[in-house]
Amino acid sequence: MAVRSRPVPRFREVPCPSPACRRLRALREALLRRPLGLRLSTADCKGEQRQRHFLLLDADNRILAGVVLRPVGPAAAQLRQMFVLPGHQGRGHGRRLLAGVEAVLARDGLLRIHLHARHDAVGFYRRCGYVPGGSPFRALGIMHQRMSKRLPRPPS
């Protein structure tokens, strides 16, 4: 009996504004803010048209995972509001999304990614090569850890 394999999810950068970017924003609010009793405010989304938005899509173009990156100077970016849909976690989607983002940023000449990991995600980011820096801090009512990763230089 043949085992049917799942198609590998597709990595994609999407422009903002766009329907895909609006869907990404709605999922960020539903998965990351509402569980904390919060909403994404206008201030939270200010300047997102100048930020980069990345998705992992299934074969039917449904979003499985997403993340936003904010430029931080000429050679770095801050990863913000990364999620993998419940029910799709533990399948490598977060790692696949992060690897895609890192490859794009390295290709574009960026040298470092920074992030503020929620306390329950620190282990995931460590396994992906991110290093903690500074003391844990409270934001949005939960503990976070500053983390960063140096990106490889693309071959010349």
Intertermini distance: 47 Å
Q: What is the number of E strands?
A: 8
Globally, the shape reads globular
Q: Can you identify the CATH superfamily of the domain at 10-115? A: Gcn5-related N-acetyltransferase (GNAT)
CATH A-level architecture of the domain at 10-115: 3-Layer(aba) Sandwich
Describe this structure in words.
- The chain has a domain at 10-115: Aminopeptidase, CATH 3.40.630.30.
- It has helices at residues 19-33, 42-45, 93-107, 122-127; strands at 10-14, 52-57, 63-71, 76-84, 112-118, 131-132, 137-139, 142-150.
- Strands 1, 2, 3, 4, 5, 6, 7 and 8 form an 8-stranded mixed sheet that branches.
- The protein contains 4 helices and 8 strands, in the order βααβββαβαβββ.
- It is of the alpha+beta class and 156 residues long.
- A hairpin with a 4-residue loop joins strand 3 and strand 4 (76-84).
Kindly list the characteristics that best describe this protein.
156 residues, 32% strand, 4 helices, Aminopeptidase, alpha+beta
Q: What's the topology here?
A:
Layout: E1 10-14, H1 19-33, H2 42-45, E2 52-57, E3 63-71, E4 76-84, H3 93-107, E5 112-118, H4 122-127, E6 131-132, E7 137-139, E8 142-150
Parallel strand pairs: 4-5
Antiparallel strand pairs: 1-2, 2-3, 3-4, 5-8, 6-8, 7-8
